[in-house]
Amino acid sequence: MRTRDVVGAAGLAGVAALFIAAFTRMPAAGSASHVYRDLVLPMGFREVTPNLVSSVNFDLRALDTLGEETIVAAAVVGTLALLQPPKKEPETDGTGYVLPAVKLAGFLLLPVSVLLGIDIVVHGHLTPGGGFQGGVVLATGWHLLYLSGSYRALARLRPIDWCEYAEAAATGLYVVTGLLGLASGGSFLANVVPLGQFGSLLSSGTVLVLSVLIGIEVAAGFVVLLSRFFVHGLEER
């Protein structure tokens, strides 16, 4: 057996042991015992964050969320490096006949989708949602123009240049927010911003800040990714 196979088997065995230990110690389904819930609930109320999912993502495990954000940024950088921009913008819309009702619905739903995405991002600490979900809604909302049969309209209206800068800036500001917590005498990504009043829009401290930054990064990153895929797909046609 080759050395690579031995090392791989040892790694798989270690991961399997960790999974077995974790699953065998989990509380029974439907039981009143839930250790993680008992830890998250007091933390959410202490940090004035009604949405406990956002409290987990942007407070308890904000460092893990930074890693997830970095993966999106790396995907954008990798796509831009591998798919070089074409010499000129495609001249065709790349779509066939679109029903007038579909075209009208796409144009009407564009502002609704953008407003809905913004709402999901900025209220992520209060209600179900947050930066990841709202960012995806924002990015896909712009592309209703393409589904409506007009790639040219999409190319004119999407802020592609701004998205490239916004995606990088949001990623950097996430790290800066973490350093502010470290500089204040706490720890990296500590929640040190004033928490505000429970249930109000300007509350939950850095949970709101990080959620908004994630929303910007995800929305801008997906717009950039899809723009490069669209250009190359239409160019091949």
TrEMBL record:
Q: Which residues form the Na+/H+ antiporter MnhB subunit-related protein domain?
A: 105-223
**Keyword tags:** Cell membrane, Membrane, Transmembrane, Transmembrane helix
Gene Ontology terms, cellular component aspect?
plasma membrane
How is it placed in the membrane, per its record? Multi-pass membrane protein
Membrane-crossing ranges are 66-83, 104-126, 132-151, 172-195, 207-231
Q: Where in the cell is it found?
A: Cell membrane
Q: Which Pfam families match?
A: MnhB
Q: Which family does it belong to?
A: Belongs to the CPA3 antiporters (TC 2.A.63) subunit B family.
Q: What is this protein called?
A: Sodium:proton antiporter
Instruction: Please report the organism this UniProt entry assigns to the protein.
Output: Amycolatopsis dendrobii
